[in-house]
Design goal:
Layout: H1 2-18, E1 20-28, E2 39-42, E3 47-50, E4 56-62, E5 64-71, E6 78-84, E7 89-90, E8 93-94, H2 103-107, E9 120-124, H3 125-129, H4 137-140, E10 147-151, E11 160-164, E12 172-176, E13 179-180, E14 201-208, E15 222-228, E16 236-244, E17 248-256, E18 264-275, E19 284-296, E20 300-314, H5 322-327, E21 340-355, E22 360-382, E23 399-422, E24 425-447, E25 459-480, E26 484-502, E27 508-529, E28 532-543, H6 547-551, E29 558-570, E30 574-586, E31 589-595, E32 601-605, E33 608-621, E34 626-646, E35 649-657, E36 664-675, E37 678-687, E38 690-691, E39 704-705, E40 708-719, E41 727-735, E42 743-750, E43 765-771, E44 776-784
Parallel strand pairs: 1-7, 1-8, 12-15
Antiparallel strand pairs: 1-4, 2-3, 2-5, 5-6, 9-14, 10-11, 12-13, 14-15, 16-17, 16-44, 17-18, 18-19, 19-20, 20-21, 21-22, 22-23, 23-24, 24-25, 25-26, 26-27, 27-28, 28-29, 29-30, 30-33, 31-32, 33-34, 34-35, 34-36, 36-37, 37-40, 38-39, 40-41, 41-44, 42-43
Length: 785
């Protein structure tokens, strides 16, 4: 009997000692507003989670003494030590803002919070660093929902592109610290001018759809806002080197003085990236820099930033045709040894934030950008009259020559916004003004014979462009009761665009257009419980044509009504985002599939069209070491009653699929972290079939781009030596591990297209392709002092 009692007591004791108890609490800011997705970590138990939509967290843990650490971007990390003994424990955290972190200051006007009724994805510096081995920012965003990326040279370095929800880069608004980055004339984004900019990026947010009111060109597919490096409390230095396939090399040096006398910090970066490219001779040579000086006191934040780069790339924008793709997918049709792009762009920004009272703050942003450069081309058998008779015919009325086509531009921006914030209410109002001017001109630098009257630097074409862009906005987020919050946003935007002179084809161009746009947006979030909420939003966007559109006779602006309905779930083991969108366009400028003589896409007005889609992404915590992060997007993208010229005749094609808009885009990441310092990721991407024109094979099947599936492996290991270095970070990336031969982008042309493909003879129809690299690798090491 005594033995039975003893074993019963022993069993009961073991059961009690093995019990898990709950640590829970709420994480709020200084205004008692909940902080969503704050990181909660108990190091000595190797357990962690993140706060839900109410700022609440919960962890199960055995009895013992633990140190709970909480982190959130823009706020001071804090920790508390607690002892659990026979009962659950509630531990709340009030986080105080970091004095020297400007996240909310610089991007508050264009960025949204986690529970906002705007469909979005965030990427932190820590996540960016894991794959930052020299590839451009679009490639680093490849695994976000509804995103498709590509590059001319095939290896993700140089001229790179991003497509979101079927919309190309000309329809993705990009801001850096709230300053517009899109080229004002083409409305595109040239990432090649910002080599290694990911190394100076603190965080970014990709808003899909219209999103919030933004500075600069309207968002017709997405908006991407980038925040540059935050101020460092402590001094540091970093040396980062990586190398890989195709003779790819990246060298980066970074430093910070830390806070000097508690008020001043100076930091900077120098980078050089080189790659031969996957495509023959499609080399990329990038040099870039980033420098910032910051001042801070109790109520003032001032940040002066300059960054820029010089790029030299050998051209690969012509792609290759089907026969060339079958014969040698790496070949480049250009043969002239100096068929290069040579361009430099420098940016200067000044940001001043002032906290006036506990409720009021203001922010001023100023920018000056200077860009200048050319691309050089060899031209065979050209008429002298096409080059202002600077040259003389040497063979059958034609001659060979080499030209340089120049851009020389300046861009000024002034942003201002004021924020009023109190519990349950935030109002941000402001304006943005920009002035852009650009000189386009071309020179003949060599010919078999120049005209007797020709002089050096004679121009065979020249035009000047000016664009003024003014917008003002006011947006508010306010709570009504415990479960409902509303979002309202109104913007007025006025655009003036003027240009005069001759195009590169020596056609007269004279544009003097003014557009006024009213863009209202509103939405609501309904909180079902502490783990789930629903949201709905409606947004209007209007967009002016770009310079190429004007050249092609298009003067009508586009209109978009964007409806978004979403559900978000967040608990200890899963974060799930689902949304349905319906984007209804009027006069949408869709890509015809053709490209012009410098590789830029040609567009045409499609009348009425729409995009209807479902997006799902998740982060599933299988264990403390293993996460699954899948995403998938299904969409139906249609031109309504589409009419096109085929063999010289206008043909009604009915409802056709919009070009370059795959019906399925899926991605997945399997992330395994056996220890805190080691992580492996297996990344996969599937992109469905795309039509490269809006004809949907009405002429032939040459306009179809096949679906593809690729996989990458990424690993990082952090070594923490006891001396000399604070950290040594090893990073590796194997792209396309299954060695797939795939094409992710191309172009399509017909007899009716009034353009020509470089180095090709146009037939009834045909296509060009941009093959991407087969299996390749990048490895790097970063030494942190």
């Amino acid at each position: 009997m005594k033995k039975n009692i003893f074993f019963l007591f022993l069993f009961t004791s073991m059961l009690v000692n093995s019990q898990s108890f709950i640590i829970s609490g709420k994480i709020v800011d200084e205004n008692k507003e909940p902080l969503v997705s704050a990181t909660v970590f108990i190091k000595n138990a190797n357990k962690g989670t993140s706060s839900d939509f109410d700022g609440k967290y919960q962890l199960k843990i055995p009895e013992g003494t633990y140190k709970i650490e909480v982190r959130f971007i823009g706020y001071k990390s804090t920790s508390k030590t607690v002892t659990i003994s026979n009962q659950n424990v509630v531990v709340n955290f009030d986080l105080q803002p970091e004095e020297n972190v400007l996240d909310e200051v610089l991007v508050a006007a264009v960025r949204v919070k986690a529970n906002s009724p705007v469909t979005h994805s965030n990427l932190s510096k820590k996540e960016i660093e894991k794959r930052n081995l020299g590839q451009d920012i679009p490639i680093l965003l490849n695994y976000l929902p509804s995103v498709v990326t590509s590059s001319d040279a095939g290896a993700g370095i140089g001229y790179t592109y991003i497509n979101v929800r079927g919309s190309n880069a000309e329809r993705v608004n990009v801001t850096i610290n709230g300053i517009p980055y899109n080229d004002a004339e083409s409305q595109g984004t040239f990432w090649v001018n910002m080599g290694d900019f990911a190394s100076s990026t603190q965080s970014l947010q990709l808003q899909r759809g219209v999103g919030t009111s933004t500075n600069g060109t309207a968002a017709f597919g997405a908006s991407l806002n980038i925040l540059t490096d935050a101020i460092s409390e402590k001094p540091f230095a970093e040396i980062s080197n990586s190398f890989g396939s195709f003779n790819t090399k990246k060298h980066t040096v970074k430093f910070s003085t830390g806070k000097i006398n508690e008020h001043i910090e100076i930091a900077g970066r120098l980078s050089k990236i080189y790659s031969d490219g996957y495509i023959d001779r499609a080399f990329t040579d990038l040099k870039s820099y980033f420098l910032q000086a910051s001042y801070i006191d109790e109520n003032t934040l001032i940040k002066a930033i300059t960054f820029g780069g010089k790029e030299k790339t050998y051209q690969a924008w012509a792609g290759i045709d089907a026969a060339q793709l079958a014969a040698n997918r790496r070949q480049n049709p250009y043969t002239y040894e100096n068929e290069i792009d040579n361009y430099q762009q420098d940016h200067y920004q000044l940001h001043w934030n002032e906290k006036l009272t506990e409720n009021w703050s203001t922010n001023i942003g100023l920018n000056f950008t200077k860009g200048q450069g050319y691309f050089e081309q060899y031209k065979a058998d050209k008429k002298p009259s096409d080059y202002a008779n600077i040259v003389v015919a040497t063979n059958n009325g034609k001659t060979d020559l080499i030209v340089r086509r120049w851009l020389d531009n300046t861009f000024y921006v002034a942003n201002f916004n004021a924020t009023y914030k109190k519990e349950g209410l935030e109002i941000i109002s402001g304006f943005s003004y920009s002035n852009y001017s650009n000189k386009h001109f071309g020179e003949v630098i060599w010919a078999k014979q120049f005209a007797a009257t020709a002089t050096i630097r004679d121009k065979y074409y020249e035009s000047n462009s000016k664009k003024n862009d003014f917008s003002m906005f006011s947006k508010a987020t306010f709570k009504v009761g415990e479960h409902i919050s509303f979002y309202a946003d109104v913007q007025y935007r006025n655009v003036t665009f003027k240009t005069n002179g001759l195009t590169s084809d020596r056609n007269p161009i004279a544009i003097n257009e003014n557009f006024g746009f009213f863009n209202p947006k509103f939405g609501a979030t309904y909180q079902l419980n502490e783990n789930q909420h629903l949201y709905f939003s409606f947004a209007v966007a209007n967009k002016e044509p770009n310079r190429n559109d004007f050249e092609n006779g298009i003067t009508t602006p586009e209109n978009l009504n964007d409806y978004e309905l979403g559900w978000r779930l967040k608990d200890e083991s899963i974060t799930l985002n689902t949304n349905v969108y319906y984007m209804l366009y009027k006069n949408q400028l869709v890509l015809t599939g053709a490209i012009d003589g410098v590789g830029a896409p040609v567009r045409a007005t499609s009348g009425k069209s729409y995009r209807l889609g479902l997006e799902i992404d998740a982060d599933i915590k299988v264990s403390n070491q293993f996460n699954i992060r899948p995403n998938i997007a299904f969409s139906d993208n249609k031109n309504a009653a589409f009419v096109s010229s085929i063999n010289g005749n206008l043909t009604a094609l009915g409802n056709t699929t919009i070009s370059f808009s795959p019906a399925i885009i899926a991605g997945n990441a399997l992330v395994y972290s056996p220890t805190e310092n080691l992580q492996f990721s297996f990344l996969s991407k599937y992109v469905g079939k795309q039509f490269m024109s809006n004809l949907n094979s009405a002429v032939s099947a040459n306009d179809v781009l096949k679906s593809y599936f690729t996989s990458d492996i990424n690993f990082t290991y952090v070594l923490k030596p006891k001396s000399v270095f604070s950290e040594v970070v090893f990073t590796g990336l194997i792209n396309n591990i299954f060695n797939k031969e795939y094409v992710d982008r191309g172009y399509y042309y017909t007899y009716d297209d009034t353009w020509s493909v470089p180095n090709k003879t146009t037939t009834l129809d045909g296509a060009g392709y941009y093959p991407q690299a087969t299996r390749n690798f990048l490895v790097g090491v970063t030494l942190k002092f």
